[in-house]
User: What shape does this take?
Amino acid sequence: MQKLMSEIDTEVDAPGLRLTELAASCSGGSCPTVYLSGKGTIVVQGYAVDGAAAGIDLPSGELLVEIPADLLAAAVRNQS
Assistant: This one.
């Protein structure tokens, strides 16, 4: 079972996009993470999944990203 962060206070500023970490599957470094954007949308960092290998025809500009299910559940709990 992956350890999920219980206290989330990380913010990332990118040009035109402010991200607040909702949940991560590690306590530091680069790992699957769910963010809330300043626009009220969700941004996911995870492992790239090849659309063709998954049998999905992806439009230009879209990606498939794999994250642990418990990470998504933690992000929902932390958003409230």
